[in-house]
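Below is how a single chain appears once it has passed through the pipeline. First comes the sequence as given, then the structure the pipeline wrote out for it. We keep one example in the README because the format questions we get most often are answered faster by looking than by reading.
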Amino acid sequence: MNDLIIREMATSDAGEIAELMCILGYPTSTGEMKERIQQMLAHPDYQCFISQLKGEINGFIGLVKTLRFQRNGQTGRIATLIVHPDFRNRGIGSILVKKAENWFQSQGIDIVILTSSTERIKAHKFYGKLGYSETGLRLAKSIEP
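Resulting structure:
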């Protein structure tokens, strides 16, 4: 892992990030991802870090800062985390989460939240090992615009 590079996302990463989003279960074209990246790069409350090994992107973590109603300050949210299946169990996910936590701390954020689908049992165990605990239940509903 000495060759692992963690860096900020760039628009030129759109194709490889789109492939990772598809693996995660969210079909995404390169064009769609490019548009999303451009919007996020222009917004100071979004950040994304890429993991790269020998020039190949193998994972990324997407972050969001949000204001909170419950108390003053902001909350950090891990919006997306994926490591390509061929690179899992090598510590890359843990490195990305630590990078995210460090970024949130640099932003004055003292709590990080995330959501994970109920069927992602391995992900729940992974987050538990990093100190994250279940604090609630996420409910969702699709609505027509």
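The chain has a mean pLDDT of 93.

See the next section for the split statistics.
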